[in-house]
Amino acid sequence: RYNLFMDAYNHISEKIDQVYKDLTKSANHPLGGTAYLSLEDNEEPYLEGIRYHAMPPMKRFRDMEQLSGGEKTMAALALLFAIHSYHPSPFFVLDEVDAALDNANVSKIATYIREHSNDKFQFIVISLKSMLYQKAESLVGIYRDQEINSSRVLTLSLDQYED
Amino acid sequence: RYNLFMDAYNHISEKIDQVYKDLTKSANHPLGGTAYLSLEDNEEPYLEGIRYHAMPPMKRFRDMEQLSGGEKTMAALALLFAIHSYHPSPFFVLDEVDAALDNANVSKIATYIREHSNDKFQFIVISLKSMLYQKAESLVGIYRDQEINSSRVLTLSLDQYED
Amino acid sequence: GRIIRLELDNFKSYKGHQVIGPFHNFSCVIGPNGAGKSNLMDAISFVLGVNSMQLRSQNLKDFIYRGGAMHDDQEAEGLSQRETRRKAHVKIVYQEDGGREIHFLRSVNSRGQSEYKINDKVVLWTAYNAALEKENILIRARNFLVFQGDVEHVASQSPKDLTLLIEHIS
Amino acid sequence: GRIIRLELDNFKSYKGHQVIGPFHNFSCVIGPNGAGKSNLMDAISFVLGVNSMQLRSQNLKDFIYRGGAMHDDQEAEGLSQRETRRKAHVKIVYQEDGGREIHFLRSVNSRGQSEYKINDKVVLWTAYNAALEKENILIRARNFLVFQGDVEHVASQSPKDLTLLIEHIS
Ligand SMILES: Nc1ncnc2c1ncn2[C@@H]1O[C@H](COP(=O)(O)OP(=O)(O)OP(=O)(O)O)[C@@H](O)[C@H]1O
Ligand SMILES: Nc1ncnc2c1ncn2[C@@H]1O[C@H](COP(=O)(O)OP(=O)(O)OP(=O)(O)O)[C@@H](O)[C@H]1O
Ligand SMILES: [Mg+2]
Ligand SMILES: [Mg+2]
Q: Residues A4-48: pLDDT tens digits?
């Protein structure tokens, strides 16, 4: 049990900083922020807590509660993506995870997903933001057909419009 | 105590349907949805619960938990605005209440605020959505000045650009 | 592997039989508030066997499409309509890395009972779950599903929750 | 009445003395993630005397601006800097319906103690709160402040919470 747990923990621990940096780098902050995990109990770690720490670029050490709404979301997505890299499931379904993000951050998430999605790792993302869905390969449009009182679907492939 | 409470309750009860209709009418649904309050205990109502019910246009009776994210937000804002009409405070501060709203709903909220804000009732609304803030009279722009590690402010009056 | 398409049958706001797809490596689900986008995610969670405690309804039979403008108005609807709508199902058409298709189906009837089928053959939940785990779809961990409103809580979750999550995927 | 402007002094991410305003009948606060928008709302809540349990920090002295790239790095900063930043305050310049201005100020020092002033005169919390209530600013009800992430919970709040809210405003 210890070995299985530490195997997962170490893998994610090594991944988290790189993922967080990928999501937080920008022209102004080419290095991005910093993120890491820490164990509260080293003997039997699966009995105790794992702490997650994330510091946006140029922001001082502060606990997660002090981060803004958008900063917390970016930190959360980095953690989810890092966790996902261990025994990855074949697909990831995200429902409006971009609600608290400004345009710049939405764009970073869209780029990250675009770069990491492939035949072995599929993303299905529900979003209200064109800044995100304009980067998808296909759109599944849901609308309400009032006359029959039902949801209906229209699918559109975006790749045919790629430059 | 009973009188004070029922005074507030009745006022809000009478207001809620109209406010909710104002927020949910559209070209397709000129009448809007339906909303009402119900008392769980009529003898000593302040000891028991008040239930809030909101039904978007053309949607069947369903408890609040079945509403979508955006539908719940619209219902919540209607309730807040209705409550506010009783002994109104001079200002209302809203932080990213539009996070779950699609463009059409953001526009309805912006219009409602524009129509109901006046010298006696001021709105200060934090928002990431241009569909909302483009309807404001003035913008308070906050940015981070990295060199001095501080937030800074730039204010812009939009009314001078009105048509 | 990947999801090729979904087939919904009277599931939540989706009346009748509807095919949704094809899905690509990066697909976005879009549409106005209340259209049925999160219901689609509920469909995926449902067919993968996610515990109904995690879904927006505690009661599985709430997932069966209900038309009509009034609560409990179904006495007013014709009996044939009632018959067609007393069960619902969701099917995932999934493609393994090798190219072979597997159909995973879960149905629910008006008594809230579920049935599981792999490629049209009824199986027990244990076999169904095992087939999913073989594809690295670990329902207990649920780490590949982020429901509406949940993402910010991932960052501020208590240390014990995070430990639990990592335990489940290891 | 209405808020004309706010004056922040070393409050949260606002270093030094900063004037924010004028505010109009409908003003929007905009800017990128992490810029300090919600901190502005915290400033308004703070100066109106909202219980620190409702704000993002349990500890009032967390509201004093902290610069420096490392936690507890203030030994490294010069002593004069430390002196200027061991207290913070927020002032609302408020205009009554009749046109008269009232200045409400609340400060906090490095021991987490607050002081309240109306028009530059130190007053007890009871007098400060009474002056606000006279303007229909009812802190206990807090129904005119909607914090980030809270709006959806308004609709799904338990019946008892709703009753409490209505009691407070009546
Ligand atoms: N069993 C059911 N039968 C019919 N309609 C249903 C059923 N269950 C839920 N609905 C309807 O589905 C709608 C909610 O859909 P959903 O949550 O998927 O919307 P959404 O597209 O995610 O919207 P948002 O962008 O606001 O989150 C509700 O209006 C509800 O009335
Ligand atoms: N005492 C303090 N001293 C310096 N900086 C602080 C202090 N308290 C909070 N901050 C900083 O303020 C930032 C959060 O600001 P705020 O929550 O106002 O952002 P926001 O503009 O609302 O962003 P979002 O759009 O993401 O919600 C954090 O990055 C935090 O580091
Ligand atoms: Mg939704
Ligand atoms: Mg904020």
A: 888 888 999 999 999 999 999 998 899 999 999 988 776 776 677
- Contact: A122, C20; criterion CB under 8 Å: no
Q: pLDDT grade, residue D54 (50/70/90)?
A: low
CA of C13 to the centre of ligand 1 (A): 6
Residue D155 burial (10 A CB sphere; 0-12, 13-18, 19+): buried
Own/partner pairs, A21-28, CB within 8 angstroms, 24+ separation: A22/A78, A22/A112, A23/A74, A23/A77, A23/A78, A23/A108, A23/A109, A23/A112, A24/A56, A24/A57, A24/A74, A24/A78, A24/A108, A25/A57, A26/A57, A26/A104, A26/A108, A28/A57, A28/B146
How far from chain centre, in Å, is Cα A138? 19
Q: What is the mean pLDDT of chain A?
A: 91
Q: Give the 3-state secondary structure of C50-84.
A: CCCCCCCCCCHHHHECCCCCCCCCCCCCCHHHHHH
Interface touch C27/A54, C-beta < 8 Å: no
Tally of CA atoms within 13 A in the half-sphere of B120 that contains its CB? 7
What is the sign, positive or negative, of the torsion defined by CA atoms of D22, D24, D30, D35? positive
pLDDT digits (tens, 9 = 90+) for B16-50: 999 999 999 998 889 999 999 988 776 776 677 88
Say what the pLDDT of residue C68 is: 64
The CA distance from A151 to C41, in Å, is: 13
Question: Are residues D136 and B88, on separate chains, in Cβ contact within 8 Å?
Answer: yes
DSSP state at residue B45: G
* Contact (CB<8Å) C152/A52: no
Instruction: Determine whether A30 is exposed, middle or buried from the number of CB atoms within 10 Å of its CB (0-12, 13-18, 19+).
Output: exposed
Q: What is the pLDDT of residues B107-145, one digit of tens each?
A: 999 999 999 999 999 999 999 999 999 999 999 999 999
CB of A59 within 6 A of ligand 2: the answer is yes
Q: Give the C-alpha separation, A16 to A38, whole Å.
A: 12
Ligand having the closest approach to the CA of C60: 1
- What is the C-alpha separation between C163 and A33, in angstroms, rounded? 23
Give the residues across from A34 on adjacent strands.
A55
Supply the pLDDT for residue D156.
Answer: 79
Whether chain A has a CB inside 8 Å of the CB on B100: the answer is: yes
Structure tokens at D11: 């409050």
How many Cβ atoms sit within 10 Å of the Cβ of residue A55? Answer: 21
From chain A, pick out residues whose CB is under 8 angstroms from the CB of B103.
Answer: 128
Which H or E run contains B38? Answer: strand B34-39
Reported as a single tens digit per residue, the pLDDT across D109-136 is 999 899 999 999 999 999 999 999 999 9
Task: Judge whether A143 and C32 are in contact, CB under 8 Å.
Answer: yes
**Nearest Cα residue in chain D from B141:** D30
d(CA B82, CA B49): 18
Torsion angle of alpha carbons B113, D14, A67, A15, nearest 10°? 130
Residues of B in contact with A28 (CB under 8 A): 146
